[in-house]
């Protein structure tokens, strides 16, 4: 039984209507059941499709954390993500952006696209410094409340994130927003990956969120041939990722009026 294929079928049935990259995506209140494990199987009821980025995004939050799942049934972005990593930026109004650079399993062995500390150890992620502060690297397994997980099946593209909303003594690196706030999200390939693809004549669009030049939406057209061997003429090149959206953090649901039911 191939769990990723079941995930793709489930999403195709349950996904809401498509959304553009400028659409305000409403979060769903998390009741404590979200597990950050790199699987999208428990996200089917929370996903929207972002046309320009050509992938699905699900968002949940509680009063402490933001949870995000990124899923594409077409592994279009996987080769560059594996080789160069990704950059996640989350910004609340009036707060400096929280910018995280991270590799995935096997990343960082042959390139220098991210910070040098990352490539010395693929088990690290980097929080970019702001306001004159230096970049800081942390292990993937940490006590900061930040979790980054990727799926293990090369036929689908799946990432899950857990990030603290408000800073605390145990979670000093946080977004700076809370339930009811709107935050901005960007998930993209590092600039060196963009430059590499442009130098190979991949048809990299200058301003879109990953649409023109890379075939149809997930599920349409051909998928990538195996590995990095898609540079042959006529084959579809791997695509850099550019996702931009706004997220509305929901407030907790009102408790049931038990006193009215039992006077």
Give a description of the structure:
The chain is α+β, with helices and mostly antiparallel strands. It has a single domain, classed as Immunoglobulin-like (Sandwich), CATH 2.60.40. 14% of the residues lie in helices and 27% in strands. The chain has 5 helices and 13 strands. Strands 1-13-12-6-7-8-9 form a 7-stranded mixed β-sheet. Strands 2, 3, 4, 5, 10 and 11 form a 6-stranded mixed β-sheet that branches. A hairpin with a 6-residue loop joins strand 10 and strand 11 (157-164). Mean pLDDT is 73; it is low at 9-17, 104-120, 202-235 and 257-261.
Core attributes:
six-stranded mixed sheet, 263 residues, 5 helices, alpha+beta, 13 strands, Immunoglobulin-like, seven-stranded mixed sheet, disordered C terminus
Q: Please state the structural category.
A: alpha+beta
CATH topology name = Immunoglobulin-like
From the alpha carbons, calculate the radius of gyration and give it in angstroms: 19 Å
Global shape: globular
Please give the share of residues in helix: 10-25%
Bin the strand percentage: 25-35%
Strand order of the largest sheet: 1-13-12-6-7-8-9
Number of domains: 1
Please, what is the average pLDDT?
Answer: 73
Amino-to-carboxy terminus distance: 52 Å
- Return the CATH class: Mainly Beta
**Strand segment count:** 13
N-to-C series of helices and strands: HEEEEEHEEHEEEEEHEH
* Uncertain ranges: 9-17, 104-120, 202-235, 257-261
The DSSP helix count reads 5
Largest sheet: 7 strands, mixed
Question: What CATH architecture label applies?
Answer: Sandwich
């Amino acid at each position: 039984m191939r769990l990723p294929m079941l995930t793709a079928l489930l999403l195709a049935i349950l996904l809401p209507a498509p959304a553009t990259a400028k659409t305000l995506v409403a979060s769903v209140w998390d009741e404590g059941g979200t597990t950050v494990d790199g699987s999208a199987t428990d996200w089917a009821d929370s996903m929207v499709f972002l046309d320009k980025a050509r992938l699905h995004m699900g968002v949940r939050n509680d009063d402490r954390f933001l949870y995000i799942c990124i899923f594409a049934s077409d592994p279009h972005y996987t080769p560059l993500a594996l080789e160069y990593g990704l950059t996640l930026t989350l910004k609340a109004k009036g707060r400096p952006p929280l910018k995280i650079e991270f590799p995935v399993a096997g990343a960082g062995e042959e390139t220098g696209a991210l910070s040098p500390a990352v490539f010395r150890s693929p088990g690290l992620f980097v929080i970019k410094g702001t306001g004159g502060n230096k970049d800081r690297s942390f292990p993937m397994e940490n006590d900061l409340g930040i979790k980054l997980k990727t799926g293990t099946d090369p036929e689908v593209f799946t990432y899950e994130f857990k990030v603290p909303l408000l800073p605390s003594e145990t979670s000093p690196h946080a977004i700076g927003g809370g339930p009811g706030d709107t935050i901005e999200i960007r998930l993209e390939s590092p600039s060196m990956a963009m430059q590499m693809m442009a130098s190979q004549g991949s048809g990299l669009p200058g301003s879109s969120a990953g649409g023109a030049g890379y075939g149809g939406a997930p599920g349409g057209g051909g998928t990538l041939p195996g590995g990095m061997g898609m540079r042959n003429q006529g084959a579809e090149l791997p695509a850099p990722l550019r996702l931009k959206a706004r997220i509305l953090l929901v407030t907790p649901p009102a408790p049931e009026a038990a006193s009215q039911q039992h006077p």
